[in-house]
Write the structure tokens for this entry.
Amino acid sequence: MVYVCSDLHGYYDEYIEFLNYVNFKNDDTLYIIGDVFDRGSDGISIIKDTMDRDNVILINGNHEHTLSDEFFELTQIGNNKSDAIDLINEFLATESIGQESTLYSFLELSMDEKYEIINYLNSLPCYEEISINGNDYLLVHGGISTDDVDTPIDFFEPTDLIFGPHDFDIDYEYATIIVGHLPTRFIDGAEPDFIYHNKDSICVDCGLGFGGRLGVLCLDNMQEYYF
């Protein structure tokens, strides 16, 4: 089975609950469309788990994109925890996106673990194109805007795909676009905290990082799961 979700935002328990509920096997695949970090407290646990699984594929989200730079700056300080805390406070003061727990958890890792995570984040794709049962899907965190609908995917800047915004009212024709990033509770016409289908778009961000829940879509049969 092929599953897709997004925006776990540090909620490790819900992630594991899903894997256990569907009896996730080695021949199953889970695509996470960005943002495993921040808001919740266990983003580092999630990233470690995804790194250990060949069949869990993480796509770059804006939180991964931002944290890869922040993590690298923290490694340059070495083991000076006082300076690291000052740098974390500086991050939080200028661009806080709920990353306090993530950054402090990162500090507790060994230097080898830190660089493994940084290298992994730097290797993440900005999108994935897959075909399931003859249906083509484009998985991308932020989405594709109205102005860019005719632009070949390889011509996008990574930040455009990571941050969006996505236009849910367009017929994209060449594929169904599956996105995260914007919780469905903030999309006009969507049912809050449910997976949203409209024309050629699907949003699977059900607001877990905003008091909602984790939504997972199985692309083999379009069954929806909530945790």
